[in-house]
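Look at a sample.

——
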Amino acid sequence: MDGSHFPIARQALPEAAAERLRSLIIEGELAPGARLNERELSERLGVSRTPLREAFRMLAADGLLVQLPNRGAQVVALSRDDVRHAFEVMASLESLSGELATQRVTDADIAQLRAMQAEMEAAHAAHDLPNYYRVNRAIHDRINAIAGNPILTQTFRTLNMRLHALRFRSNLVPAKWDQAVGEHRDMIDALATRDGARLRDILARHLKAKLQAVLETMDTP
């Protein structure tokens, strides 16, 4: 349970509501193109409309929502071309992150990533997709952080924010999910041996496979 059905503490800031909404969008409970019902979401999250509207503005800045004049907010729906173009750039960003990370990674980083990988595989074995994807995101973010380039990190996070819902949904096909788990093992092995060329290649193939999986899910009602 991701907690999205439990009220947010009264003293929490709009960031808490925004994070809860991100989870609902990523996990498909708020579908692409869906109009957001302020009253319903206010009750569901246990917040008043003022912090909820601020959360809407935050997610609009992240590219997850579009705010329509006099019509409220709507979840962004990306076209196939939008997705294809975004993944082309994402593949380059992830590959560069991996190559830089192999130059700067420490043994402590590797140990942390292996522990995260074990946690992710446990979630995969339990068919717990929300928890799996949470750790998956953390692994990619950690590799990007190890790369040590703040401009790269900001660009990576901004673009990836728009793709999380699609990347989550691509794991609904069991074979694709199993393949992704294996690719993550290979990523950490390449990082551990400081093989930048191999890690760049793995990440490029990983994103190419992810794009194909995403496009297939877009063809599925």
User: Anything to note?
Assistant: The chain is about 70% helix and 5% strand. The chain has a mean pLDDT of 90. The longest strand covers residues 65-68. The first helix runs from residue 14 to 26.
